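dumping the sequnces here before i forget
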Amino acid sequence: MIKIVKRDQPSKAIFFFTPVLAIFLTLIAGGIIFFILGFKPIEALKFFFIVPIADKYGFSELLLKATPLCLIAIGLSFCFKSNNWNIGAEGQLTFGAIVSGGVALLFYDQEGFYILPIVILAGAIGGMIYASIPAILKTYFNTNEILVSLMLVYVSKLILDYLVVGPWSNPEGFNFPETRQFSDSARLPLLFEGLRIHAGIFLALAAVVISWFVFYKTYLGFQMKVSGFSLKTAKYAGYKGKKMIILVFLISGACAGLAGVGEITGPIGQLHREVSPDYGFTAIIVAFLGRLHPVGIIFASLVVAITYLGAETAQIFMQIPKYTGQVFQGMILFFLLASDYLLFFKFKFIGSKK
Amino acid sequence: MHKFLIRSFVSSLVLLFTLTVAAVAKDVKAAFVYIGPTGDHGWTYQHDVGRKAVEDAGFKTTYVEGVPESADAERVLRQLANSGHDIIFTTSFGYMNPTNKVAKEFPNVKFEHATGYKREHPNVATYAARFYEGRTILGTIAGTMTKSNVIGYVASFPIPEVIRGINSFTLAAQKVNPNIKTKIVWAFTWYDPGKEAEAAKALIDQGADVIAQHTDSTAIVQMAEKAGVYAFGQASDMDKFAPKAVLTSVENNWGPYYVDRVKAVANGTWSQKDTWHGIGDGMVVISGLDSQMPSDLQAKVKKLQADLASGKVHSFTGPIYDQKGNLMVAEGKTADDGMLAGMMTYVKGVEGDIPK
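..and the predicted 3d for all of it:
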């Protein structure tokens, strides 16, 4: 007989083991789904997870895809660690892209080394402005940040629609919904000839290092951790909660804004209606899969990025519907949440000594 | 014996030749990049019907659905070009820049971009359909069938393609019924059944008894069926989704063009061009007419269809005035393709302003 017993303390080993377990279970469930759909499971999984990154180009695409996910998830982990539920990273990304794109368009016919830093900065500021709205409303008016930040996503997309259809649309573009192309000086430099991976990856890596330092070596990190465990304790300890809430939202917004900059000044090179394929939402999965730990988030962003690439490859070579990629992302989160059960409970075999 | 040898030699040569030609023809592989799911029963669905026609013609095809117009499009295109496809159809406007970019790297692969205008390399062609011709027919039917003289129109995005459709529709409706007004609701989406249904509902609440649409889902015709008003199918024949509401549909018929272009690649005769085909070339097809339409209207529609096909009637024949009463096209003149391609003003009789 097996009995389920509550653990005295959540297990630290299991805390980092469950993401691996979740990925493993997703692979098995994915294989079963492929089998039911009438595909050879092993072959399908190969096209999903190995073929897309089997060459230099594929690997660069993986990094290209993982960069915004990692950057946003790092930002989100500041919020999530401290009990602030910022669900609107997609909106902060979009608004960052709008502001930095607007600046890039001002310089569309100019070249100069100073343009790119201004464009990048503008994107970070745009993301911060947009994230400050739910933060200020939460601290001063007690609104629910989940609703406010989520609703603002749709507002930001409508603003982008309005701009690319109307005032910012390319004057030579026959009224199609897109802006002019940015000048080369407003584009992030490519790291290798012929590959799309660009300098934006350094922004993501810098965010990883800085966040690690803040989380584990600073007073702010400690405050965030305490607030995450118990808001009452944080208050009792005399932490100034309002200041921290605004700060983590600003950091989160800046990261999302920078991810937007990376997309438009990296591979896209202009503003149009679809700047991001919902990176801001997918990054929520990445943040939790990475256990809100900077290094974990790097791995998680790579794992989730490959589900995008794999879905394309599997459709091209095996005619597997591309939407399976989203099924995989959903399953990873599902299994992760389900296996978190093991954090708090353990199986005990009755009859054994212990 | 000698003769026999020669004869068998010649016949085997002939056989070898036919085999090689057949093999070359079969070897051409075509790829299709879709913006939505193949099951949308609208835009993507019809492109996929076209793809199946290419398969039926004996060619291998591949497709990738749900490709966002973000940075991802370029990767999908490069992967298709890299994996032995000879011609790639990119079926949404937002693929324009990625298509031209990847085309530059793969000069031996042909690219066909739907609804765009950039042909930056000799291996990029563009194609689109004159859907506004179909909307001239819908307008004629709507203007005749309406009792409230209010016609609803669910639009997607304020771009020339959509404005052109609204104008063509309204002009035709006015011609048979000068009292009609076209009310527009902008859904700001190509495919979102929820939003589209809401838009249709709003129009019906404002008194519209005929609803036209420039979005892709079947939600609008289904809403019309429920409310007991008329509607038109978009992109594919939507009659089966709302048998009472749907009077007819304008179908996007890409198959013949696709087969033509893939065959051209097989024969080595493919060349860059800009195609804009309408009813006459069969790219725009009018589905069967509903029996609720009086027989004189049916006859009128059939005649109009034939006249549009032959070029005897043009959807934009003057005099045409804009909302403020300024002359857009003089009497006896027709709008040229340049004007049609950049059309961003409503004609008289359309209510409201273009969102800017």
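Chain A has a mean pLDDT of 91.
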